[in-house]
Amino acid sequence: MKKRIIAWAVLLSVCAAALGLWCSAAVGKTARTLPCEDEGLILSITTFDGKSESKPFLKCFGHTWIGLDNRTGHTVYLKDRAIPDGEMVTFSVWAVSGLSGLLFDLEPCYIANYGRYTGRLSLSTNIGEEQLKVIEDYMEQHDKWTVNKNCSYWSVHLWNAVVGEEGCPEDPGFCLHARKN
Description:
The protein folds into two domains: about 1-30; about 35-180, no CATH class. The protein contains five helices and seven strands; from the N terminus they run αββββββαβααα. It has helices spanning about 1-30, 105-115, 130-140, 150-165, 175-180, and strands at about 40-50, 65-70, 75-80, 80-85, 90-95, 100-105, 120-125. It has a five-stranded antiparallel sheet, sandwiched between helices. A two-stranded antiparallel sheet has the order 3-4. The N and C termini lie far apart (about 55 Å).
């Protein structure tokens, strides 16, 4: 009798665990999706947790950056930088010796040349051209990297300044963490 009770308890536990994993996987996939057209200005925030690059005794804390993809049919300008139709620019703050601060287009080079940022996650949404001014103003006021205001802090706060609360799905992962900063 004890063996049957134990067998049923184990079977019930396995079924409950499988159901829980299945449900949480389905929720995560839909909760991280924002409506985004393939035209216009597409703002993206991309994050990498550093796990794939960490080694014993050497912890990689990851990186977060913003991307702006121009699909408007004409050139747009961000500060004094022309972004032709069909092109994308990335930017974030870095702690590079001698260049600590806002830098452009480093991330695509790291990805293409060194295979970096494996396992990155991103979130994209359309923005209007009038929101370029919000990005420019943020860049003017926040152009430095510091320990307390690193790339993640900088990118998340810029994202929230441009997109607002409606740009974050009610998911306890990516964006909820972003709002806590």
